[in-house]
Write a structure and sequence with these properties.
The protein has helices at residues 11-23, 34-42, 62-72, 105-112; strands spanning 2-7, 26-31, 49-53, 78-82, 97-100. By secondary structure, it is α/β, with parallel strands linked by helices.
Amino acid sequence: RGHVLLVEDDLEVSALTRELLTFLGFDVTHVPGAEPALEALADGHGFDLVLSDIMMPGGVSGLQLAREIRQRHPTLPIILTTGYVEAAAGVKEGEFELLPKPFSLEALAGVLGVEVK
């Protein structure tokens, strides 16, 4: 179905999300933060989608990362996730798809526009 760049600093969350994405038929590359995400995108891995947590260590939030990716790759779909409602407050209406944590397989499939097998 495509190649997803998963940006998530929590190893347990990233492992579960990767498992769900793989079950839905996606190839997944996981990176723990903004800098490695930008490096992966610059390396030309041919990603079809970015799925990023909003809350990340290192001074660059997932929202800032998403805006930087949008500037560099304007057609690349970006989905942001968060378990903190206040973290999503900076997302402008219609700017990015938002997937609240914790999310189910069905919710993930819905935001990706795929059916659960």
